[in-house]
Amino acid sequence: MLFREHDFVISGMHQTQVPVRRIAAIDLGTNSFHVVIADLYSDGSFRRLDDLKEMVELARGGLGKRLANDAFERGIAALKRVKILCDSYEVDKILAYATSAIRESENGGDFIQASIDQIGIKINAIPGIVEAELIGYAVQHGLKLSDEPVLVVDNIGGGSVEFILMNNHEFHHLISKKIGVSRMTDILKPSDPIRQDEIKRLEDHYASELAELKPILKENPTALMIGSSGTMQAIALMIASRKGQTVNVTLNELTYSKTDFLEFYDSFINLTEKERLKVSGMDTKRARFINTGVVLVHWLFENLGMESLKVSTQALREGIIIRYLKNEISRIITAPEFDDPRRRSVFELLRKCKWHEAHSSHVSKLALTIFDALVVDLELKTGDRELLEFAALMHDIGYHISHTDHHKHALYLIRNADLKGFTQDEIEIMAHVARYHRRSTPKKRHEEFWVLPDEIKERIKKLSAILRVADGLDRSHYQNVQKLYVEITLDEIVLLIETIDEPHLEIWGAMRKSQLLEGLTGKELSIKNGSIEG
Fold it and tell me: Domain spanning 144-313: which CATH class is it, in words?
């Protein structure tokens, strides 16, 4: 698959320019949370103002399991400190992206909700392939590259490792593998010092997981690796110290050879933790678990034909900023033409409210799939299919006013937007279905709902029940659910899903909002993940 990056200039000095926006980019990694505060400029450039790194070790206790209580609390406490920094800079927008530890944990959804409720930070849990893309943007921005391909290896210290085969303007391949230091340390629990049989087990596992890299590199050969992330920088700093190199300004672009690394490896791999702490350049916070990462780099050099490694100090957080710049500043918004005044009117409102297009469009498709399966059970009206589609497209437009109570703001916006081609009842249905996509279900105490005719209220309940589940299935806002098939039995509604990455967050999101649908159908909802034929 080929991913091409459009030309996009990130440059410029800002002595006389006024920033158009100030944002915070937060990388919620497995080992640490890292935030960068940056000013954005109209020429597509940005300037870093401040940053903060908080070590949290979310994976302590195992990735793919529940976040342990103390890890959960460490993470929330760290985010509170991050929010204080953001508030002190009066940022306009916070972009928080979570990777494997939160995404794969059974209570990752609870952590995301706690962040919203306690701190006011909305976290996007991204799949590994999106993480790889963002890292690719950061490396293109931070390093001098050419048309020749390089292999970027990022985030080896976390739960997953991202591999990006790319050059200065395009991505050839994006791959994410669950072989990060935190994960492998938790699985292997290596001795101190690590034994040869444990190294062999690691190497065999890496060989199995990374088998697909060899044919990819045969098509696009390169001998240069780009190493990004804290563990890669820690290794580079120790090698630089061995060679007497000065790196007190920056590690960015620092390059070492395969020979340099192998000499370092032979002197380092058999050390105990206490001995590792004494190595010049050692990051003391990584001494306990760095060995599995050192073995991975050794395997990459020995098995993929790599001859040198160059360090990039820019990673996911800078990629978040660059992607935001691409989407918000360089994008030219063009209005699609629709002959149907209803659809045209809805899309005019969506554009005015700067809608979350990818998420809302995906939720709409999921909702219609569920609608089609439940036509008989819920006695759904044919015309309500289109109303559900429009309500799903508009369900998050309340963010244009505020994150807090955005479902209620959506109700207000849709009712007062003067949408063309709809009857008053149809507008009420769309507005209330959007309003009930989250939080409370329809209640007698909701005055605007309760005064509606009984037949309209019943239609709203049925459609909002569907939308609630569909919205939950894209809880990450990254379209993790790629296929959806609905099976209806005598006493059960079974959603069969096929996902890009771990499905825990989507299943959690849908199940926590399933009660209305279960009540209306008298059937229990269940969700199963796996390959869907056809």
Answer: alpha beta
